[in-house]
Write a structure and sequence with these properties.
alpha+beta; Transferase Creatine Kinase, Chain A, domain 1; Creatine Kinase, Chain A, domain 2; eight-stranded antiparallel beta sheet; two-stranded antiparallel sheet; 14% strand
Length: 391
């Protein structure tokens, strides 16, 4: 048994297609109910009967041979999902453009797929920490427990994981093993790769306790196909200081993460930039592929979920604001964050309970350089710290 996986169908990990979608029939009842609910998913808003009829028999031109039924399975199965749709390959976004383009524009408010992104500068320039011109206030620094910035990236030589296979996932992790193997021992990024299939129970528990391990068992991710073939092809890479972490095949091929305790945002961003370049250069040297990360000409980095496309970056801080939480509540804090191009999550991340701290991160992902998105997060943290001081 691996991670408690049982023989046969396992609802925690295995993909199950909603009944109507399995028959390639429009799930009218469920989508109508979702549209009428308080939390209407983007999937329900954009997958009208007209859109369905246009694409119901279309198969994507990419390696996944994706369908609209597969794309919307999460949103139909779980109407409370906010986005509720996923791409199976890069081509899905264009092959189902009348569905995915409006989803992208709705989520990434102000972005137009017709105009596309006019980002200037190289990736290194956009990830340059010296371009951050906003500093954390002293009050915010004193309230920040930890800082974490991550990039979602997919490798251009493989299908996206929802449209992939056990073999494609294992090929991704085999390639990453070679990349990590040539990192010099003296590098701050040098570390060790732990495979989900072979790590000891002791190591698994230590990674869980340190909040480094992704474990699956997310119902919405399972409905997207993220967890298929669990735990094969999954792994976690940690540098020696445990400040540079890579998740392999959690959902996207790579989650490149830089983190540390406290509020040194610039140092965290600098480490992330160096790590992303190291991985890109390493993959290019091994494969000979010039385009390492999967990119789209209009919006940038391609990810499975439309919410992460563009930069694929989420910069966050855990900020202690217990008095503000008690006074106005999480929903109001989140509303104030959204006004400042950020979002609030629970004390332990997405869908978690709110205790004494809020996870604050940039909301925008697309059309802006990464350093400006970090500035969004810094400004919002400064605002929340100031509001906490007023209570």
């Amino acid at each position: 048994m691996l991670f408690g996986k049982k023989p046969g169908y396992d609802p925690d990990y295995d993909l199950k297609i909603e009944e109507s979608l399995a028959k390639n029939e429009y799930p009218a009842e469920k989508l109508d109910a979702a549209r009428a609910s308080e939390h209407t998913s983007l999937c329900a808003q954009m997958c009208t009967k007209e859109v369905w009829d246009k694409y119901k028999d279309v198969v994507s031109s990419g390696p996944a041979k994706w369908t609209l039924a597969r794309a919307i399975n999460t949103g139909v199965t779980y109407p409370d999902s906010f986005v509720g749709c996923h791409a199976g390959d890069k081509e899905s976004y264009d092959d189902f453009s009348d569905f995915f383009y409006p989803v992208i524009e709705k989520y990434h408010s102000g972005f137009s797929m017709e105009k596309g992104s006019d980002l200037k500068g190289t990736p290194s320039e956009r990830m340059d920490p010296d371009r951050i011109k906003v500093d954390l206030s002293d009050s915010a620094k004193n309230k920040i427990a930890s800082t974490r910035i991550r990039l979602a990236r997919n490798l251009s030589m493989f299908p996206l994981n929802p449209g992939g296979s056990r073999q494609s996932r294992e090929e991704v992790i085999d390639l990453m093993k070679k990349v990590y193997a040539v990192i010099p021992d003296e590098s701050d990024l040098a570390g060790e790769l732990f495979l989900h299939t072979t790590m000891s129970e002791e190591k698994r528990q230590s990674l869980i306790d340190a909040h480094f391990l992704f474990r699956g068992k997310d119902r919405m991710q399972a409905a997207s196909g993220y967890h298929e073939h669990w735990p094969h092809g999954r792994g976690v890479y940690l540098n020696k200081a445990q400040t540079f972490i890579n998740w392999i095949n959690e959902g996207d091929h790579l989650r490149i993460i830089s983190m540390e305790m406290g509020g040194n945002v610039r140092a965290v961003f600098e480490r992330l930039s160096a790590g992303a370049k190291l991985i890109e250069d390493g993959v290019r040297a091994i494969t000979g592929d010039e385009e390492v990360f999967m990119m789209h000409p209009k919006f940038g980095a391609v990810t499975c979920c439309p919410s992460n496309i563009g930069t694929g970056m989420r910069g966050s801080v855990h900020i202690m604001v217990p008095k503000l939480i008690e006074k106005i509540g999480f929903d109001e804090i989140d509303r104030l964050c959204r006004e400042r191009n950020c979002q609030a999550r629970g004390s332990s991340g997405e869908h978690s309970e709110v205790v004494d701290r809020i996870d604050v991160s940039n909301w925008r992902r697309i059309g802006l350089p990464e350093y400006e998105l970090v500035e969004d997060m810094i400004r919002c943290a400064n605002f929340l710290a100031e509001e906490e001081d007023k209570v």
